[in-house]
Design goal:
The complex is a heterodimer. By secondary structure, chain A is an alpha+beta fold. In chain A, 36% of the residues lie in helices and 22% in strands. Chain A has a 5-stranded antiparallel sheet. In chain A, strand 3 and strand 4 form a beta hairpin. Chain A is elongated. By secondary structure, chain B is an all-alpha fold. Chain B is 62% helix and 2% strand. The longest helix of chain B is centred in the middle third of the chain and has 31 residues. Chain B is globular. Classes of the chains: A alpha+beta, B mainly alpha. Chains A and B meet through helix 1 of A and helix 4 and helix 7 of B.
């Protein structure tokens, strides 16, 4: 075989394998796509029910969502809890910066601006240290429930190390600091856009 | 070249263990062994990909030409990883939430590629499948032990959150060895991975010397 046909053979082999496995991956994507989208909605629904108590709404939280721009110009999807047409709470995602990058949290707030609940949904904090923000591992995150911008006072919305009221973890200060700051910003976001968030259509 | 099944099992689990003898797959070994449960999860996902990719490569080895074999192996391994990632996400979502983090990392592991090149490329499908499976189980074992060492020293627990990976029936595995907040932080940070691996390698060498086995030097020439 000449060098040219050799090269062609290798190209054909590589090309056929790419085509074959490409089709396999595409087929898997096709068969799993809808299911994965449903699971993502389930996950969202689950985290929403953790920050808005089930008794507070009779609507579909995932469907009743509005998009609001925050101060940095980013779109925030706000899920609204309604009972008998009355707004009982809103939930939205907030992002804090931790030791291992971004910490995604979801928080629920009453129309009066009190925290209904906060949960960490996605983060890469050090296992055994920073991951105690996860409700499955520690009850730390549940202590924010019932608090608001004025309670504790604004200058106390910090971890104890920085002169505030919230516990840090031994060996990990950066993670709780990031979470406390994110929650405070989340409450400020609510206060700034309250009129827009609370109005019912 | 035929390898006996007994030899395949022994090589995979101990003699030629992926981590402790071949010293391959160091990236997940360092990154994912902050706890025994994490090591176990990473190991199981890798074992599955290794068994299936070895099987496919051995079955298709007659069609793969020498010159393009490496890209073809990488293609097959990456396709298997994607397949596992998508299927778990769709149909075993609870498990995916725990393992999902580990699965894409398997592509960066050189152990599946190493076994494809030195074993699956030359052997029939069944032995290649078993080689992938037992290499994967040996890898799982090494990662779980390193994870356990780092977790006990660093966090004072063992198999914390194992029920998230294995189901509620395995809650009994979750132990607290040392009182809370007494852990030595460095063990769960990256240097702890090197220390634990070094200790484990020394233990394997010691046992092998005691058993009178020739000591295989790690490196490409020994695989």
């Amino acid at each position: 075989m000449s060098a040219r046909t050799m090269t062609l053979t290798h190209a054909m082999v590589l090309g056929s394998f790419c085509l074959g496995f490409g089709i396999l991956v595409a087929a898997t994507d096709h068969f799993t796509h809808d299911e994965i989208a449903l699971r993502a909605i389930d996950d969202l629904q689950n985290s929403l029910t953790q920050v808005i108590p089930p008794g507070l709404y009779d609507n579909n939280l995932v469907k009743d969502a509005v998009t609001v721009k925050n101060d940095e110009g980013k779109d925030v999807t706000v899920y609204r809890a309604l009972k008998g047409g009355q707004l009982t709470g809103v939930a939205y995602e907030i992002v804090g910066s931790g030791y291992g990058g971004e910490i995604h949290l979801i928080m629920g707030v009453t129309p009066e601006g009190k925290i209904l609940g906060v949960r960490a949904t996605e983060f890469k904090e050090t296992p055994g240290l920073g991951d105690r923000i996860d409700a499955a591992k520690s009850n730390w995150i549940t202590k924010f429930t019932g608090l608001s911008l004025g309670d504790p006072p604004a200058d106390k919305w910090k971890v104890k190390k920085d002169g505030g009221v919230f516990d840090q973890f031994s060996g990990a200060t950066i993670t709780p600091r990031g979470v406390v700051a994110a929650i405070r910003r989340g409450l400020e976001f609510f206060a700034a856009h309250k009129a827009q968030l609370v109005e019912t259509h | 070249m035929a390898t006996s099944y007994k030899q395949i099992v022994r090589d995979g689990l101990w003699d030629n263990n992926g981590v402790l003898a071949q010293m391959l797959g160091m990236c997940p070994t360092m990154a994912m062994t902050t706890s025994a449960t994490n090591g176990l999860g990473m190991g199981l996902a890798t074992a599955f990909v290794m068994a299936t990719s070895n099987l496919l490569i051995a079955a298709l080895r007659g069609y793969i030409t020498q010159e393009v074999r490496i890209p073809v192996y990488i293609l097959i391994i990456a396709a298997m990883v994607t397949l596992v990632d998508l299927s778990l996400n769709a149909w075993m979502h609870e498990l995916y939430k725990v393992l999902g983090l580990f699965i894409p990392l398997i592509v960066s592991n050189c152990l599946p590629l190493g076994r494809a090149e030195v074993f699956a490329a030359k052997e029939p499908a069944i032995p290649a499948f078993l080689d992938g499976l037992f290499m994967g189980i040996g890898f799982t074992g090494a990662l779980t032990v390193i994870g356990a060492m780092r977790e006990i020293v660093g966090s004072g627990t063992l198999f914390a959150d194992a029920h998230l990976l294995l189901g509620p029936a395995f809650k009994f595995l979750e132990l607290r060895i040392l009182p809370a907040d007494t852990g030595v932080l460095v063990a769960v940070l990256p240097p702890g991975g090197f220390l634990a691996l070094g200790l484990l390698l020394a233990v394997k060498r010691m046992l092998d010397i005691r058993a009178g086995k020739p000591i295989a030097m790690a490196g490409a020439h020994s695989v």
